[in-house]
Design a protein that fits this description.
Elements (H helix, E strand, L loop, with lengths): L5 H13 L3 H9 L16 H4 L10 H23 L2 H7 L4 H7 L3 H21 L8 H18 L1 H12 L11 H22 L8 H17 L1 H8 L6 H20 L23
Helix pairs in contact: 1-2, 4-5, 4-7, 4-9, 7-10, 8-10, 8-11, 8-13, 10-11
Length: 282
């Protein structure tokens, strides 16, 4: 039941008090003869209604960030930094520009985050190779095999490296993470080389950084230039047979250099079918 207006209550009380009929006045106040109610000026609000409504895209910040980075990696790999468009990245991630800037930052910051993520991914997988528990020659062979197949499985990584090298590593120089990622990896290779020297498998301890650069270069150059090299030499350099031949050649080449033995000791890749078509004399 709503309460009568205060002025009405006072008027009723004064009238009935004057006539000595206070009990009747009380009953009248509880049930007035005409409408004389006041509207409530304050209403109780449910506690949940008072809480700030969090936008849906802020409820899973880590998931949204990952979707943005995946979309950005594909965009930067396909179009480079200059050709990449933030609108396309946001649309592919199911976001908008505001969400993108909120979770990552402006375009340059997004590109650097993608680069750092790309390097982190390959370093994490390299640490899982368990090279420390393999014989040194076998450990190097596994590292070559992994690097080769990782590059094949992740063409976006090669594209990102090409883009950043064209920019003279301008963005990577701002990174505070990349150098710390590579220190344990270099130490892992150094340990393998040192064990190889101690076991007599390797005559000398080569620089682990030079060794890795050589392995990466053997893989990277072949894959990043396979289109032009294929035209020049008239071969399909990305066929399964050609890729297997290349991997066997790289492993034999590196192990021969490390051990001082002939490449023939480590097995020779089978010649490509194209070379079998030699014209026989009449």
């Amino acid at each position: 039941m709503q309460t009568p207006h205060p002025s009405t209550i006072l008027r009723i009380v004064a009238t009935f008090s004057h006539k000595g009929r206070r009990e009747e006045a009380a009953r009248f106040i509880l049930k007035p003869l005409r409408p004389c109610y006041i509207r409530a000026t304050h209403t109780r609000t449910h506690p949940l209604a008072k809480a700030k409504q969090v936008p849906k895209w802020q409820r899973d910040p880590q998931g949204m960030r990952l979707r943005i980075l995946e979309a950005a990696k594909a965009e930067f790999a396909a179009h480079g930094l200059a050709g990449a468009r933030v609108d396309r990245i946001a649309a592919k991630a199911g976001a908008n520009k505001r969400m993108l800037y909120y979770h990552v930052g402006k375009k340059d910051d997004l590109y650097l985050a993608v680069l750092e993520g790309a390097y982190e991914q390959i370093r994490v997988e390299e640490r899982a190779l368990d090279l420390e528990h393999l014989d040194p020659p076998r450990a190097i062979e596994r590292l070559i095999d992994f690097t080769w197949n990782y590059f094949i499985r992740n063409p976006e990584f090669l594209a990102l490296l090409n883009t950043e090298n064209l920019a003279h590593a301008r963005h990577l120089k701002r990174s505070t993470k990349v150098k710390s990622m590579h220190s344990p990896f270099v130490e892992m290779i150094r340990t393998v080389v040192r064990r190889g020297v101690d076991s007599g498998d390797f005559p000398v301890a080569v620089d682990p950084i030079q060794l890795y650069i050589s392995i990466a270069a053997l893989c990277f150059f072949y894959l990043s230039n396979s289109a032009t090299l294929g035209v020049i030499f008239g071969r399909d350099l990305l066929s399964r047979e050609a890729r297997d031949e290349r991997l066997a050649h790289m492993a034999a080449l590196v192990l021969a250099a490390l051990t001082g033995k002939s490449m023939a000791v480590f097995g020779k890749a089978k010649p490509a079918r194209a070379r079998a078509h030699v014209q026989q004399p009449a």
